[in-house]
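WARN retry 2 of 3 for item q-0093 after timeout on previous attempt; input resubmitted unchanged.
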Amino acid sequence: MSLIERTNHETLRIMTSNVWGNCGDQPIANRDDKLADVFLRYRPDILGLQEVSAKVRREQVSIFDLLDSQYAEVAVDIEPRSNNYTPLLYLKEKFTVLRCGFHCYSGLNDSNSKSVTWAVFACKSSGNRFAVCNTHFYWKDDDAGKEARISNSKELVDVVAAIMPIRQIPVLCMGDFNCRASSDPIRILLDNGFADARSAATVRTSDSNAHHPYPEWDEALQIFANGPAPTGEYAQAIDHIFYAVGTASIFVYETIDCQDALDASDHCPVYVDLSFREVAATSPPIASLAPEALHICWMTDLHLVDAVAGQPQAEGAIRGNRHYYAAMQKLRQAVDTINKEQPDFVICTGDITDRVQPLASFQEEWERIVAPKDLVIGNHDLDNGYRSLVEQLGYATRPVVAGSVFNRSLSLRKGALRVRLLLLDTNIGEDGAHRVGTSEGALQEEAIAWLEQEMRTCPEALVLLFSHHGMAGPTKYFHQPDVTRYYAMVDRVAEAKPELRLLHCAGHHHVHPLAEILVRTPYDSFINGVAMISESSSFMHVLSIAQDGTWTLSYRELRTEGDDG
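OK item q-0093 returned
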């Protein structure tokens, strides 16, 4: 197949390729050289690979070395796993990575190779943002395998849910799905707002299915050769590229079946040439969302300095690697938005202040909120001292629960919906004292016991847990023995209470511009929230819970004066 020239400089080329890295005793030999030649010849902007086994990475000159002059691998945290089989690569000269993540699929998953790696990219020249998910679904074609792929697809939808809401940025999902476009797992993607890029393409160079028999090993020459071309039609294809409906124009869909590609793997690389369309920049107001749903406005990591020093141009404004862009201005905008949209509840998950300072400027805005509200404290707040915080916030008469007045259990109701809201102080060590001067979260046994009691005995099936530190966040930000005990507790409760659905929301990690959603089990999910201080334009969350208990996350943009970026 001849290389098709791009239509213009704004066209992006997105490619997926299974490199046949799970090859048993077979060598890699010349296969990575051939694939690298193909990739450099076609030069995709974004390249997603599957089956990148440890064996592929251990080659004396690996495919990453061969591509290093032009491509960088998206660096994601894969702990506790030792290898990312589904890496994303991008042209270093053209793009920057704004946000990225990794999710290993639950259930059947040989070698933990079935996963999704995602990233939000920004074009250096235009500033345009888009997201790409690169994935590999489970492979066996028995009943258990089919169910596993359905589960993979549902988990992929959950991953995408963390990316789609902000600005409705374009999102693509691509990879080796190990199932046909007409199958149930793909139907799940289509039902959740995705379309098959091949069907939408103006130019389709082949009706091939891309998957084909393995190339032959030439013992004498010690190379792979004579890779056969695919013989099936696209209806039998298992390699796909999907895009969010209404966000892109697809110009070309091509299956690369040149001999170099055929000799390198049992999958031909597939790519699309596309351009992204402008889409809505803001989420709809609460009034236009489902009126019967329960709506919670959630803000985190305000890091107020004072009413002046947080302004970008003011004397004493903090610059450098911590971005305190008009923190008070953003808080006022958030409160104005809350009072205008009238949510059912408002939550702040801490780091209200950045240093030792009175809470008066925060309280003035906080008290303007008409809706019911509550908060938990963060590690920066504790620079003021726990007792001082309690007194300034007027919480001295609140009961102390598991060592803190900030540990609370509330029942939220709307219509027939019942939700248990748990607020958790994650700043207390095993000695029962609040920890000052550390960014590491902690949970003493008393707090874990309290959480277990609340989750077991509350009549609600859906539990919303809000804290400053996230137990599912980066490992360096939480005392890991406490995390182990916490998840053991959650699993015990889920076994005793099968209807349990836990959603844990936390801040602390200064995520921006997208919240990160992680699904640990079918009953336990985590949202790593967007920090309000990060960048000149940031966001407040709106968590909307339907009457059936399903939830969605949307955002409200907060911008500094004069910021039109």
